[in-house]
Specification:
The chain is α+β, with helices and mostly antiparallel strands. Helices cover 54% and strands 18% of the residues. The chain contains nine helices and eleven strands.
C-alpha cells in the first residue's frame, strides 16, 4: 500500500513539474522580449546612428523581407524627393529647359542591398502570433563603404567639366559642359544617397554642388557665342537647307547668314540608270570651327530607291526623304559630338 502511495506521489510531482515548465514557457516574460520587438523599438536603433525599418509578418523570412522592403522604399522615396528639389533649384536659376529623370526604384534598392543593410534575428511574439525583424544601416559604417562610389562619380563629372573649362572652341566647350551636366546628375544622385546616410559628412561636398549649379549658365553663355552659317551644294529647292536649320534649332543652336561656324554640306543624288533614273540621295556635312579645324562631321543617306524619268523628277521625290532623315538623326548625332572625340 505504501508503495502505491509512493508511486502516485511521484506521478503527481512529475505532472506538477510539467505544468510549471510548460506553463511558464507559454507566457512571455516582458524582459525576454527584445526592445526592438516592442513599441519603443527605435530606442535600440536611434536615428542619429541608424537608418532602420521594422518588418512584421506571420513567417520569419517574410518579416525580414518586409523590413528590407520598408527601408528600401524609405531611402528610394527620400532620394527621389531630394533630387527633384535639388535639380529644380539648379534649373530655376539657369536657362536649360529639360526634365530630370532620377534613378528608378530597382536601382535604389540595389544600392541599399550593396551598402551595409543588416538584420536582427527574427523574433516571434506569441501573444500577437507575429514575427518581428529590423533591417538597419549603421550610418558611420555605411558612409565609409559608400564614399569611394561618390568619389568615382565626382571624378567623372570633373573630367568633362575641366575639358569644358580648357576648351577654346565655344561649340566644343558647350558640348563638354552638357556632358558634365549629364554626369553631374549621376554625381548628385550619389550625393543624395550620401546625405541620407550622414548629412554632416556629405556637407563636405557643398562646393561641388555649387559648381554643378553654375553649369546651365555656362552652357547658355557658350551658346550665345555660336552662330552656324550653312553653305550647301547640290540642294533642290532649299529642301535640305531647311531641314538642317530645323535640326540645328532642335539642338538649341542658331543659324545665320554670317556665322562664326561654317557648316559645309554636300548633297549627292547618287543617281544610276537612265529613263527611269534611280537616286539614293546622301549628305556629307562638316562644321568648321573658329580656329579653322573641323569640329563635327555627319553623313547620312536614303537607302530606298526613288525613280523618275528625269534627274529633277527623282530629286523632287527623294530629297524630302533625305530631309526627314536629317531632321530625325542629326540632332541626336550632334549631341554625341564629345563621344566621337
Amino acid at each position: 500500500m505504501n508503495q502505491r502511495i509512493y508511486q502516485f506521489a511521484v506521478f503527481y510531482t512529475f505532472l506538477a513539474s510539467c505544468f510549471v515548465i510548460f506553463g511558464c514557457a507559454s507566457n512571455e516574460v516582458s524582459s525576454d522580449v527584445p526592445t526592438w520587438a516592442k513599441n519603443e523599438w527605435r530606442q535600440e536603433f536611434p536615428d542619429s546612428k541608424f537608418l532602420s525599418a521594422r518588418g512584421i509578418a506571420t513567417e520569419s523570412e517574410a518579416a525580414k523581407t518586409d523590413a528590407l522592403a520598408q527601408i528600401s522604399q524609405y531611402i528610394g522615396t527620400s532620394i527621389n524627393a531630394n533630387l527633384s528639389t535639388s535639380v529644380q533649384t539648379i534649373e530655376k536659376n539657369g536657362v536649360l529647359d529639360e526634365t530630370f529623370s532620377i534613378q528608378n526604384e530597382v536601382a535604389i534598392k540595389s544600392q541599399v542591398d550593396l551598402f551595409g543593410v543588416e538584420f536582427t534575428k527574427p523574433y516571434f511574439l506569441k501573444k500577437e502570433k507575429q514575427w518581428y525583424c529590423v533591417a538597419y544601416i549603421n550610418r558611420d559604417k555605411a558612409w565609409e563603404q559608400y564614399v569611394p562610389h561618390i568619389e568615382v562619380a565626382k571624378k567623372v563629372f570633373y573630367g568633362f567639366y575641366r575639358e569644358a573649362e580648357n576648351e577654346s572652341e565655344p561649340l566644343l566647350s558647350c558640348a563638354y559642359y552638357k556632358k558634365s551636366w549629364e554626369k553631374g546628375k549621376d554625381f548628385l544622385t550619389q550625393l543624395e544617397y550620401g546625405r541620407l546616410i550622414t548629412p554632416i559628412r556629405e556637407k563636405e561636398y557643398s562646393p561641388d554642388r555649387n559648381t554643378l549649379a553654375l553649369i546651365p549658365s555656362k552652357i547658355a553663355s557658350e551658346m550665345n557665342n555660336i552662330l552656324l552659317q550653312i553653305e550647301i551644294e547640290g540642294d533642290f529647292g532649299g529642301i535640305i537647307e531647311t531641314s538642317l536649320e530645323k535640326a540645328f534649332k532642335k539642338s538649341g543652336f542658331t543659324t545665320a547668314k554670317n556665322g562664326n561656324y561654317k557648316v559645309f554640306a554636300q548633297i549627292n543624288p547618287n543617281a544610276t540608270g537612265k529613263e527611269p533614273i534611280a537616286v539614293f540621295p546622301g549628305i556629307d556635312l562638316k562644321i568648321q570651327g573658329t580656329e579653322g579645324r573641323t569640329v563635327y562631321s555627319y553623313k547620312d543617306r536614303v537607302l530606298e530607291k526613288t525613280t523618275g524619268f528625269s534627274l529633277e523628277t527623282a530629286q523632287r521625290k527623294s530629297y524630302p526623304k533625305l530631309a526627314e532623315k536629317i531632321e530625325q538623326n542629326l540632332p541626336d548625332d550632334f549631341s554625341k559630338i564629345i563621344e566621337a572625340k
